């Protein structure tokens, strides 16, 4: 078994799984459907092409730097009539960083890694207005999904690591696909069956939420607490 690792960092990200009409929300972490779309675009697949091989990969994501949720209002006018369209709300994650991983067949993951290094269509972080700030592919490694999410170094920005310098080790939240037969903590309509514009289809995906611990490169143990002896200050014994 092999694992393809991706890093997702940028000024803004947005990963909607249930957005409708004028309110476009974001999940707290990248969705499997969003990243399968990114992989398919890197390979140059059209929206009507099959996704079975990508959807069959086991997926997990770790929140290295959760970011801050921000809201934007957008207005638009109809291209033909000029009439004002309804004001829409769009939500984003600002200054977030994630480590994502796909587990599956090594040959397929190597193909995807090569495609990400030379993508047919440029990648974006959930919406076209959200370009990545770092290179996305981190390579293909042997092993399982959980080991990859537990063993990879912390990807948070240096200023964020410095902010938590009193923690030599930090706990990070992670969402992982449950295996067949396991009980899911949460379900999300996030497994793409087709991206065809006339008939987009998604299935439910079972998730497990867990926490992993990683080392903080900027971490230092807290300073020692000075001895406290008020009697000595009064000259007593």
Distance between the termini: 68 Å
CATH architecture descriptor text: 2-Layer Sandwich
| CATH topology-level name | Alpha-Beta Plaits
Enumerate the spans where pLDDT stays under 50 for 5 or more consecutive residues.
none
CATH class: Alpha Beta
What coarse outline follows from CA principal-axis ratios?
globular
Q: What is the residue-mean pLDDT, rounded to a whole number?
A: 92
Q: What is the element string, with H for helices and E for strands?
A: EEHHEEEHEHHEEEH
| Share in β-strands | 35-45%
Count of spatially separate domains: 1
Our count of helices gives 6
- Alpha-beta classification: alpha+beta
Say how many strands there are. Answer: 9
The largest pleated sheet is described as:
9 strands, mixed
Radius of gyration: 22 Å
Estimate the helix proportion, in percent.
Answer: 10-25%
Protein name: CRISPR system Cascade subunit CasD
Keywords: Antiviral defense
Biased composition (Low complexity): 228-237
Region (Disordered): 215-237
Characterise this structure.
With 237 residues, the protein is an alpha+beta fold. It has 6 helices and 9 strands. Strands 1, 2, 3, 4, 5, 6, 7, 8 and 9 form a 9-stranded mixed beta sheet that branches. Strand 8 (186-194) and strand 9 (201-215) form a beta hairpin. It is globular and about 90 Å long. Keywords: Antiviral defense. Residues 215-237 are annotated as: Disordered.
